[in-house]
Design brief:
Aminopeptidase, 28% helix
Length: 173
């Protein structure tokens, strides 16, 4: 299972259907992210969608959807990884979401590095992700950590917005 550095003060465990309400509360708390990406707050089915959404050809056994918990424990973030997305060893990072109150404290970097190390131990050699063009701070975060643009996708409707997703890729050493 994914182990986070002790200094982060967080633990991680795979989320299950029983965690849907807590995940929905996290999505609601992250309204700023949802409005930026989708043009509207998360809908009432967002958590269920996140728990089951998969790239083509993948199954739920390929999906590692982790909840990130404070010591209380309280869900304060989520991380979505899918193994062998396009080819063996190429993983897809679908989401790294932190509630506003824990952002800006270096947690994202620590979580990302732990996730990359864990994925590497599971056989990953590369991670891909898609970043919405309007998510400039997210893009800066990914690029600061070695992710580079691979290709843009054509504009698509996401919620009420027309969005261009840019695929970023990072080779794991």
């Amino acid at each position: 299972m994914l182990s986070l550095p002790l200094e982060l003060g967080l633990t991680a465990r795979r989320l299950e259907e029983k965690d849907t309400a807590a995940l929905q509360a996290l999505c609601d708390a992250c309204a700023d992210y949802h409005v930026l990406i989708y043009g509207e707050p998360a809908g009432p089915g967002e958590a269920r969608n996140l728990l089951t959404e998969l790239p083509p050809g993948r199954t739920l056994e390929d999906k590692f959807f982790f909840g990130l918990f404070t010591p209380r424990p309280r869900l304060c973030g989520a991380l979505d990884l899918v193994r062998d997305c396009r080819e063996p060893g190429e993983w897809y990072l679908g989401l790294l979401l932190l509630e506003p109150g824990v952002r800006g404290k270096g947690l994202g970097e620590g979580i990302l590095r732990a996730a990359e190390g864990w994925a590497r131990a599971q056989g990953a050699w590369r991670i891909r992700l898609a970043c919405a063009e309007q998510n400039t701070s997210g893009r800066r975060f990914w690029e600061r950590h070695g992710y580079r643009e691979d290709k843009p996708f054509p504009p698509r409707r996401m919620g009420t917005r027309e969005t261009v997703l840019v695929e970023l890729v990072h080779a794991l050493e």
